[in-house]
Structure formats: structure tokens, C-alpha cells
Input
Amino acid sequence: MERTSLSSNKFGVVMVAGLIAVSSIASNSVRADTLDAVEKFLLHGVIATETDDGAGNAGANPVVTVPVKGTHVGSSSTITFKVVNGTVMNNNQTNAAGGLCATKYGSGTLSIPDAKSSSITMTLSGIGCSDGTTGLDELVWIITGGTGRFAGAVGTGHLTYSWGPAAGAAPAASIVDMEGTIQRQ
Output
């Protein structure tokens, strides 16, 4: 009988010690360090539409560089990317606009002109449709690397790239919008 009482007493002491340890940990606030938190990531940029990037990549798949502004990157950053057509969809049947849709894949780099020369590299994949004059690419981006403030960053999101000719008083333009989440470690 004495042995059972002693075992129960040891169990009670261990339980109380465990509860004190847990409550001590729970009462210490967790620091919300923005470098460790998952954060919303937004970018927007507009440039005049070009058909040649100056490096001989003319036509439907140029290297595109767009000045952007957004969260975590300020207003003087640029994104440079290239996506190429993969598989043309619908057995080469034209879409309602008389163009084609195809899978797209490629890569990009977001350059941030800060004291650390920060950058984010990413892969891009999705689908794009064009009638030869206007087009829209709907892509998913996944961070593959980073430098400076974004060394060790992870994240994913959605990138929309649209382009079109001048219409009325509006000039020809290319528009890039990115949104997603990023975590800098």
C-alpha cells in the first residue's frame, strides 16, 4: 500500500512540474519577427508594350523587364522574366479571339535596389492566350532563391501579365500584377 501511495505521489509531482513548465512557456509571448512571419506579397507594374527585348528575343516570347512597386520591395524595383510556350491547347484550334492558348513556363528575377542588393528568383508556369495582338498569361510563381533581405525566402503566388495595342488615347501597354505570400527566414 505504501508503494502505491509513493508512486501516485511521484506522478503528482511530475504532473505539477509539467504544468508549471507548460504555463511558463505559454506565458512568454512569441516575438512577431517579420523575418519569420508569412506575409502578403503584392506587386504592380506597367510599361509600354514591346515586341523585342533588345537581345534578339522578338515576337511572342521576349524577355520582359517591368519597373514595379509593392509590398516589401518599395517603388524602384524591377522584375525581369521570360516565359515560353509549351503545349498548344485544343489541337491548334483558334480561340474565340482568333488566337491560340498554350501552357507557359519560365523564370524570373525581382531586383530590389536596397543597401543589400536584394533579389528574389522564381519559376513561373501556367497558361497564356493571345490573338497575336493582345494576350494574357496567368502564371503561378514559386520562389527558388533570394539574396540580401530575401536570402532563404520561400513563397508562392499568382502573376498576371497582360499586353495590348494602343486603343484610343491609351498607349500600348504591358501590365504585371503579382500577389501571394512570402516568408523570409
About this structure: The first strand starts at residue 38 and ends at 47.
